[in-house]
């Protein structure tokens, strides 16, 4: 029987915190008695990230490991995990659990209420932030959000929160068309959601800033601005047109567990 929920966690060199994350996520899944799978996508980590997942998976068949072909970026990892997920509803979450897994039912409730996609938001109700970002990152975020509104027409308070849930039909339409493989993929998938008339619900969630973020506001910020322009250009030139076909990458999974095989 296919799971009701899939939880996708992209991971790159997450050896120091992934164990605690998996303990929390797996404990919550079992406490809720969900029919679920948890997928960790290893993005070519150079530390013991994959070994940690294997050790947990050996004890818990809910968990499986997906290996990227080298280090490709968060956007690639999310896409690979989403297209390998079998759940009726698929959630992706950052490995640091900036939004606690206990917030997931808020997104699932929005989907049950008629939305096709539910996105966690840090700014619909700013008081839900348990620890805010530094001021310079808040300023960059607001400028970036304004650019998205002006360039792509995305009228959301927060596009970048790494806590989003999709019905499987939306997954199979949007993610095969996703082209951006690094940090700027969130606006692209929301742009595609609007293009294909999916109903997107923004949901306020608890969120706390992690000091271990790998985003460089200047370098990655400039790249993300370029990617906004790429999205508009790809749309104008028909790159997003046609019937999308799922293109999950061949993956390695923990032996003996269900899922795609290499």
- H/E order of the elements? EHEHEHEHEEHEHHEEH
Put simply, the count of helices is: 8
Distance between the termini: 22 Å
Question: Share of helix among residues?
Answer: 25-40%
Radius of gyration: 17 Å
Q: Determine the mean pLDDT.
A: 87
Query: Which class of secondary structure composition applies to the elements?
Result: alpha/beta
Taken as a percent bin, the fraction of beta residues is 15-25%
Major sheet: order of its strands? 3-2-1-4-7-5-8
Number of strands: 9
Unreliable sequence segments: 250-262
Task: Outline the biggest β-sheet.
Answer: 7 strands, mixed
The shape is globular
Describe this structure in words.
This protein is an alpha/beta fold. It contains eight helices and nine strands. It has a seven-stranded mixed beta sheet, with helices on both faces. Strands 6-9 form a two-stranded parallel sheet. Helix 5 runs parallel beside helix 8 (219-236). The longest helix has 18 residues, at 219-236. The radius of gyration is 17 Å and the shape is globular. The protein starts with a strand and ends in a 26-residue tail after the last helix. The model is unreliable at 250-262 (pLDDT under 50).
């Amino acid at each position: 029987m296919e799971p009701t929920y899939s939880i996708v966690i992209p991971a790159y060199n997450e050896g120091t915190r992934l164990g605690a994350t998996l303990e929390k996520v797996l404990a919550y899944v079992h406490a809720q008695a969900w029919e679920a799978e948890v997928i960790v996508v290893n993005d070519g980590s150079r530390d013991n990230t994959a070994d940690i997942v294997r050790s947990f998976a050996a004890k818990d068949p809910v968990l499986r490991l997906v290996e990227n072909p080298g280090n490709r970026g968060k956007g690639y990892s999310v896409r690979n995990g989403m297209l390998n997920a079998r759940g009726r509803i698929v959630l992706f979450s950052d490995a640091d659990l900036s939004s606690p897994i206990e917030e997931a039912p808020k997104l699932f409730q929005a989907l049950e209420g008629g939305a096709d996609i539910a996105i966690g938001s840090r700014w619909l109700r700013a008081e839900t932030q348990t620890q805010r970002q530094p001021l310079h990152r808040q300023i960059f975020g607001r400028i970036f959000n304004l650019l998205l509104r002006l360039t792509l027409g995305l009228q959301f308070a927060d596009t970048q929160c790494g806590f989003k849930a999709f019905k499987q039909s939306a997954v199979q339409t949007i993610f095969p068309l996703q082209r951006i493989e690094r940090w700027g993929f969130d606006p692209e998938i929301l742009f595609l959601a609007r293009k294909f008339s999916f109903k997107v619900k923004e949901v306020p969630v608890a969120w706390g800033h992690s000091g271990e973020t790998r985003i460089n506001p200047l370098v990655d910020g400039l790249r993300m601005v370029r990617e906004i322009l790429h999205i508009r250009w790809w749309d104008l030139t028909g790159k997003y047109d046609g019937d999308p076909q799922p293109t999950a990458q061949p993956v390695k999974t923990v032996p003996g567990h269900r899922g795609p095989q290499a």
